[in-house]
Amino acid sequence: MRPYLLLTPGPLTTSETVKEAMMSDWCTWDKDYNEGIVEVIRKQLVQLASSRPDDYTAVLMQGSGTFCVEAMLGSVVRPEDNLLVAANGAYGKRMGVIADYYGINHFVMKFEETQQVSPQMIDAYLTEHPEVTHVSVVHCETTTGVLNPLQAVAEVVKKHGKVLIVDAMSSFGGVPIDMAQLGIDFLISSANKCIQGVPGFGFIIARRSLLEQCKGVARSLSLDIYDQWKTMEEGHGKWRFTSPTHVVRAFMQALKELSAEGGIEARHARYCENHRTLVDGMRSIGFETLLKDEEQSPVITSFYYPNADFDFNDFYQKLKAKGFVIYPGKISQADTFRIGNIGDVYPADFVRLVEAIKEL
Ligand SMILES: *Cc1c(COP(=O)(O)O)cnc(C)c1O
Questions:
Q1: Do residues 326 and 355 both lie within one domain?
Q2: What mean pLDDT is predicted for residues 192-209?
Q3: Which residue from 140, 137, 143, 116 is spatially nearest to 194, judged by alpha carbons?
Q4: Can you give the pLDDT at residue 22?
Q5: Is the pLDDT of residue 164 over 80?
Q6: What is the C-alpha to C-alpha distance for residues 74 and 268, in angstroms, rounded to an integer?
Q7: For 222-233, how does the pLDDT look when each residue is reduced to its tens digit (9 = 90+)?
Q8: Could you tell me if 108 and 195 lie in one domain?
Q9: Hey, how many other C-beta atoms are within 10 angstroms of the C-beta on 106?
């Protein structure tokens, strides 16, 4: 079942038991599925995301993570609103591209890809531009692995009284986040990242009072978050259109395994140890990380090519033959490759990985 470990978030390496959970067929309209699986998932997601679960609600949406980011922006930001996007990588920039497609008034504040976004600069911009209504930021920029200073950004955005949207795609479930404490209004993530499910849907956790006001805002039928949510609320876990039933069932199993591991804190500790094992090992054989340790998330790590003659494709193929699939780099200003630390993978796997790289 496992020709190689996927160190590519995501999809990422999932457990046998998560894969096995997909071995039965469920009816997308049946109560067993709607109430017994979908509603359980929605409730657990809100509990994981917020210390005040009553103020929040979860909506699941078919498709990959980007579908959810698009659904969210297109269903929440109105034509008369103004969006500020803080971007220090491809995923931040993608929110700007979505805003372009929808004709949403927006400004993309660009930062270096190797640096965190600056709360001070966001503060200054919001002081100068009171017309801004929404601010969006990526928590962990998977482009490089930078972890943005969410707490400081949230403080600034809340001080100015703006709606805060967080793409926590690659961090939610693996890095502790309390939406209520931080004042986050909308958070987006997907099945195949730190919850360790298989790909096929994503979810938005929303401040209930704000989502309730979004009727009729969406410019897309299938990506209408409000309508999807309303149907799930009133139909007790009903989806509007065919849902990825097997994937949803596997996700419930993944949530169970997250809880069995000890919850988000425990998973975060494992990812940190994976990351530490990887970085210490790679440094010991001469590799350098792109980022400074203080800015680095435990989610994915970028390494410089070891020398000018380095052939990534050759390296990739040889490593794959040894049982590890990694990611190419995603930035233009340096030659890098990336290794993911999330999924059903453990420090011992990274010891083996470093050993395999050393042999190459
Ligand atoms: C994975 C990811 C996405 C969504 O990517 P998809 O390929 O659409 O699943 C968005 N933002 C971040 C930060 C991500 O890591």
A1: yes
A2: 98
A3: 140
A4: 98
A5: yes
A6: 32
A7: 999 999 999 999
A8: yes
A9: 21
CATH number at residue 349: 3.90.1150.10
Record the tokens describing residue 255, joined without a space. 């949530």
- Residue pLDDT, tens place only, 223-272: 999 999 999 999 999 999 999 999 999 999 999 999 999 999 999 999 99
Inter-CA distances, 92 with 95, 167, 172, 227, Å: 5, 8, 16, 26
Q: What is the CATH number of the domain that holds 58?
A: 3.40.640.10
Cα Rg of the chain (Å, integer):
20
Residues 251 and 330 in one domain: no
pLDDT band at 331 (very low <50, low <70, confident <90, very high): confident
301 and 237 inside one domain:
no
User: 77 and 176 share a domain?
Assistant: yes
Of 89, 73, 108, the C-alpha closest to 297 is 89
Confidence at residue 1, expressed as pLDDT on a 0 to 100 scale: 67
What does the alpha-carbon distance between residue 286 and residue 13 come to, in Å, rounded to a whole number? 27
Compute, in angstroms, the gap from residue 309 CA to the centroid of ligand 1: 31
Same domain? 223 vs 308: no
Question: Which residues contact ligand 1 via a Cβ below 6 A?
Answer: 64-66, 91, 138, 142, 167, 169-170, 190
Number of domains in the chain: 2
Question: 300 is in which domain, residue-wise?
Answer: 5-10+263-359
Are 109 and 135 in contact, with CB atoms under 8 Å apart?
A: no
C-alpha 166/C-alpha 169 separation (Å) is 9
| pTM confidence score | 0.97
Q: Rounded to the nearest whole angstrom, what is the distance from the C-alpha of residue 108 to the centroid of ligand 1?
A: 18
Residue nearest to atom 9 of ligand 1 (CA): 65
Give the atom of ligand 1 at the shortest distance from the alpha carbon of 202.
9
Placement of tokens 């009816």 in the chain: 27
